[in-house]
Amino acid sequence: MNEAASRRAKAIPINVDGLYEKHKTVYARTVTGIFNNWRWAMVCFTQALFYGLCWFEWNGRQAVLFHIVERKFYIFGMVFWPQDVIYLAILLVISAYGLFLVTAVGGRLFCGYACPQTVYTEILMWIERKIEGERPARIKLDAQPMNARKFRIKFIKHSLWLLVALWTGITFVGYFTPIKELLAEMTSLRIGPWEAFWVLFYASFLYMMAGFLREQVCKYMCPYARFQGVMFDPDTLIITYDPERGEPRGLRKKKGAVDGPPLGDCVDCSICVQVCPTGIDIRNGLQLECIACAACIDACDQVMDKVGSPRGLIRYSTENALAQHYTAREILAHLWRFRTLLYTAILLAIILAAGWSLSQRVPLKLDVLRDRSSLSREATDGRIENVFTLRISNTDEAPHRYAISVSGIDGIDIVGERQVELPAASSETVALSARVEPGAGKKGSNEIFFEVRSETDDKVAVREKASFFMP
Questions:
Q1: What is the CATH topology of the domain spanning 364-470?
Q2: What is the pLDDT of residues 372-425, one digit of tens each?
């Protein structure tokens, strides 16, 4: 680019505001109906699970606890250690494939009914409606200048929002620090800096995301909305508007009015737009902002009842069903296709493999380290000695007494502790020596095996390989 062209480019004004859509506050209208009932049932179920599970006890401890300080994960009767990270990976894979399957079958059902952003937005919006009133009252209140009444209403609403957010933050941290200890530390003002940080961070995050950003999180921040199209196909169940039946839309003529062109069932009341938590018009087709909450279906069905038209102008359907006029049975038949069957098969295989692995999991772990400061030495009795450190972890909910043995070289024997007793969900480091007669093994490294076995349960035993060095 020459100098003249560069000056012309600099002189061209750029309208930055035109690159972005101006944000408009969404005032979602209250809606009732079967899908709204399902949505609130999921809100109650997920939050009862989240807020209540941390208070449930199992064997005298918190039933579900991811104890960061102790580096142990307690899930009811199971104790997981850092060595069990494979199960975390399996859980993430199961969650991913489960999400793929649900999306391929029913679109963004997770977003509409179980996503934390949706759930907490519903809770805070419910508080907002109870304090500020329904949609017209909220619009009118926000348009008013600040006065004593408006300040009082806003103060009460935000105080309740902050209480919900704070208790949610405390509950969240209560899964990583025992909830009772956490509350005792907070009431005595002895809470640690990291616990305090995460309580305030999570509370602030919820307050901001569910209270202010709301639909903007779904539109601009959530990656799921961007890649959902890869998992959709023409037989995926989505929320659809039936244009063949609804168009041309328009208000019904009064009795005695001059007949005009025939109208579709859509009366253009825009209630489907008013109830949408993301503020979209579903009549414009599937959009990435749609979270499949089905509020528009409940709203449209009520309007159809009032005008005497059949329900289902907005409904759960598929692109192929709309184009080819499938019956409900045909829609269900097309849900089980190659993609969904493949996802289901993979998901079941992973779940079965994980379940079998957990059922066969031995609640005992053994790590063997050889003292590398001295590869070998001659003991006082003339035998060759190697020093080892055994890290024994009892991952069971009951105490065990373990016997330690070694094999692999003829005549190899242990000098030191041969038995160790461990309480439930604990570990201990044992230092011992292994000795053999000179010439019992080859020069250099020899393969040996340490075995730790419970004296009360023969099934609880592990065998770990190690190396014995001969000079």
A1: Immunoglobulin-like (2.60.40)
A2: 777 888 888 889 999 999 999 898 888 889 999 999 998 899 988 888 999 888
Cα 441 from Cα 346, distance rounded (Å): 48
Query: For residue 166, how many other CB atoms are within 10 A of its CB?
Result: 17
Q: Which of 22, 2, 59, 15 is nearest to 398 (CA)?
A: 59
User: Are residues 405 and 453 in contact, defined by beta-carbon separation less than 8 angstroms?
Assistant: yes
CA-based nearest residue to 173, from 200, 204, 148, 149: 200
What is the tens place of the pLDDT at every residue in 83-92? 888 888 999 9
- 25: helix, strand or coil: coil
Contacts of 371 (CB under 8 A, 6+ apart): 386, 387, 388, 389
Please give the backbone phi and psi of residue 204, each rounded to the nearest 5 degrees, phi first.
Answer: -65, -40
How many CB atoms within 10 Å of residue 404? 19
Rounded CA-CA distance 250/268 in Å is: 5
Report how far residue 376's alpha carbon sits from residue 379's, in angstroms, rounded to the nearest whole number. Answer: 9
Dihedral (CA of 374, 380, 384, 389) sign: negative
First to last CA, the chain: 76
Cβ–Cβ < 8 Å for 367, 411: no
DSSP letter string over 265-330? S-----HHHHT-TT---GGG---TT-----HHHHHHHHHHHHHT--S-SEEEE-HHHHHHT--HHH
Of 155, 146, 178, nearest to 66 (Cα)?
A: 178
> At CA 362, angle to CA 360 and CA 367, rounded to 5?
135
Cα angle for residues 439, 442, 446 (degrees, 5° grid): 120
Dihedral of CA atoms 232, 235, 236, 242 in degrees, nearest 10, equals 110
3-state secondary structure of 145: coil
Amino acid at the residue 76 = F
User: What ranges do the domains of the chain cover?
Assistant: 22-361, 364-470
* Each residue's pLDDT tens digit, 102-141: 999 998 899 999 999 999 999 999 999 999 999 999 999 9
- Nearest to residue 441, comparing CAs of 414, 406, 467? 467
